[in-house]
Write a sequence for this structure.
């Protein structure tokens, strides 16, 4: 039982490049989330998907897009990366709107 | 923007001591208060959680104390061990319809020294 799997684990981009972070969960959860973690800032919600077919903005959505591909998969896309997007990105899932989130191990992104 | 204020930012405790982390919230609609534990290089993991209808919840060496009138809650780690060294996040959540945004505190880095 893998839980929440994120790829890639590490990525270095140049300013202006694009990339997609992939996330998949095998727990049959309805809701999925993308957070970013920066030193001293805690965890900030970028986008979430309450259920398959829906996506909504979180606290810091600017510069990102998401796709809920199916119930298992939720991807995060940076169309034109900026140094301010250097961060550790976490995908999470939950069965319903319970507040009990299961996190992946994170994707460390550096934008030069 | 709803906030959860967490303190201290960092904490150093001797092995066997008690670690205490405090959080305060503003929105009285919050009805679920989890604590997450994060080890370096890993994602956060749910540690313990409480609902506002109880004042205390204990799981092993970890206890949440909840003060509804003061809108504060805290995590107590008894007999702290070096293996407890991690970053701890408090959070608050409204489990009602349409609300999916878990509000996190900014985290406390706990170091337990032998």
């Amino acid at each position: 039982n893998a839980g929440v799997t994120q790829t890639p684990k590490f990525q270095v981009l140049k300013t202006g490049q694009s990339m997609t972070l992939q996330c998949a969960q095998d727990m049959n959860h309805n809701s999925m989330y993308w957070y970013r973690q920066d030193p001293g800032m805690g965890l900030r919600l970028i986008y979430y998907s309450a259920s398959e077919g829906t996506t909504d903005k979180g606290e810091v959505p600017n510069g990102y897009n998401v796709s809920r591909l199916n119930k298992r998969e939720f991807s995060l896309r940076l169309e034109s990366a900026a140094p301010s997007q250097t961060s550790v990105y976490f995908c999470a899932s939950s069965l319903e709107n319970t507040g009990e989130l299961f996190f992946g191990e994170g994707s460390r992104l550096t934008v030069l | 923007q709803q906030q959860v204020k967490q303190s201290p930012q960092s904490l150093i405790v001797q092995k066997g001591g008690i670690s205490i982390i405090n959080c305060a919230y503003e929105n009285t609609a919050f009805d679920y208060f989890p604590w997450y534990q994060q080890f370096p290089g890993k994602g956060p993991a749910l540690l313990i959680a409480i609902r506002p209808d109880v004042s205390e919840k204990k799981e092993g060496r970890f206890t949440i104390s909840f003060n509804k009138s003061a809108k504060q809650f805290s995590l107590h780690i008894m007999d702290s061990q070096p293996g407890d060294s991690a970053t701890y996040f408090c959070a608050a959540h409204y489990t009602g319809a349409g609300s999916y945004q878990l509000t996190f505190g900014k985290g406390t880095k706990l170091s337990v020294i032998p």
Q: What stands out?
A: Residues 44 and 82 of chain B are 18 Å apart (CA to CA).
